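FAQ

Q: What does a record look like?
A: Structure on top, sequence underneath. For example:
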């Protein structure tokens, strides 16, 4: 039987019967309510993922979305998987600008969705709470395995480049919830949604170590993005060329502000203050015909591509005459520094093959992140590959 526990914190945890989500978003954000509506109705993981990315990655910078057999992790969230043999493995998106999507092994008996916070562990049946960690037990964990794995898991959930705090400062007790207060809040909020929890004291982050280390880079990667965060990218919906926050490598190539190595030349990116710049091309699409399309704006590909949106500056690319390809088959979208691919409800579907992975069919109208080297197939004879080094 599945059992869920949580550690109080500042992230939003959405807990259902078969989907668990740890979300870096304000608790009163509309995306939280949308996710809760889906999770409590036992929606599929892809449906919840679609709700998260609906407004783009500026709205939700980090999340861990998990079912018993699949996990999607982005930004500062992580997942620790514990097997019945006591072996723990971690899935995170460290050094990845997009997200990590993994199938999970059937032998996993415990899942720990974590942001690196510590504190008291409290039981949870379902609902929405503020948390630093979710612990989902899928099966019976032997006591000896639990004790041995517990030490290993704690070590793996520490944020990299942040020193482990002294034992006396590790756990910050949070006041226990009063049943009367829970009843009062649930009565005030329709659908059992608690917008804020005043008994969950925030867990302070460990103090930074003296010297540079990599603390500034870690903060940039793991911070929660809010609508008021003016240091994030400037909206592309306005007029003029899209602008982003950037840093430079030693060869003066522009990179995302959290980058440690250049996306073009692979060289180190020295510590520096990020700045606003016109976004450079994010790479190219190399078509099966040998032609290349520069990614300086969105691209719509199909048998006879068109757009009815007069404000859409997308590049329209014809990729064949076969009826296997829809008129508007697929779109490649640029969102900040991210490159997304979206099947536009095509008749015969779209397949994405990432380097080292099996082909995966795209869900209609749900964006998927393209990483360099990914091939997107529209039909047997029509495909393209996303490349960065040629930008």
């Amino acid at each position: 039987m599945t059992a869920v526990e949580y550690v109080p914190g500042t992230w939003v945890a959405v807990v259902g019967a078969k989907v668990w989500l740890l979300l870096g978003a304000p608790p009163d954000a509309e995306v939280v309510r949308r996710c809760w509506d889906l999770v409590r109705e036992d929606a599929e993981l892809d449906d919840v993922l679609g709700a998260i990315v609906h407004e783009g990655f500026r709205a939700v910078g980090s999340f861990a979305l998990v079912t018993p057999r699949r996990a999607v992790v982005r930004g500062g969230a992580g997942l620790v998987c514990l097997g019945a043999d006591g072996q723990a493995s971690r899935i995170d998106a460290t050094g990845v600008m997009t997200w990590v999507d993994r199938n999970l092994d059937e032998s996993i008996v415990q899942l720990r969705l974590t942001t690196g916070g510590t504190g008291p562990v409290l039981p949870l049946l379902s609902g929405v709470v503020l948390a630093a960690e979710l612990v989902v037990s899928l099966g019976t964990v032997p006591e000896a395995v639990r004790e041995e794995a517990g030490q290993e898991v704690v070590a793996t959930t520490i944020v990299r480049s942040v020193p482990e705090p002294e034992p006396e400062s590790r756990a910050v007790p949070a006041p226990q919830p009063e049943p009367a207060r829970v009843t009062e809040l649930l009565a005030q909020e329709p659908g059992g949604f608690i917008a804020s929890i005043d008994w969950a004291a925030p867990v302070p982050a460990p103090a930074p170590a003296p010297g540079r280390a990599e603390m500034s880079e870690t903060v940039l990667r793991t911070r929660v993005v809010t609508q008021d965060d003016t240091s994030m990218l400037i909206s592309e919906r306005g007029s003029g060329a899209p602008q982003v926050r950037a840093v430079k490598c030693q060869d003066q190539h522009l990179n995302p502000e959290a980058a440690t190595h250049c996306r073009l030349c692979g060289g180190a990116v020295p510590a520096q203050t990020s700045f606003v710049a016109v976004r450079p091309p994010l790479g190219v699409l190399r078509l099966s015909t040998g032609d290349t399309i520069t990614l300086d704006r969105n691209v719509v590909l199909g048998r006879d591509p068109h757009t009815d949106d007069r404000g859409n500056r997308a590049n329209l690319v014809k990729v064949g005459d076969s009826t296997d390809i829809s008129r508007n088959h697929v779109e490649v979208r640029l969102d900040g520094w991210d490159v997304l691919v979206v099947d536009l409800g095509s008749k015969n579907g779209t397949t994405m093959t990432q380097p080292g992975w099996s082909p995966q069919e795209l869900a209609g109208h749900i964006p998927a992140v393209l990483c360099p080297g990914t091939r997107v197939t529209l039909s047997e004879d029509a495909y393209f590959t996303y490349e960065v080094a040629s930008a």
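Q: Is there anything notable about this one?
A: DSSP finds five helices and 24 strands in the chain.
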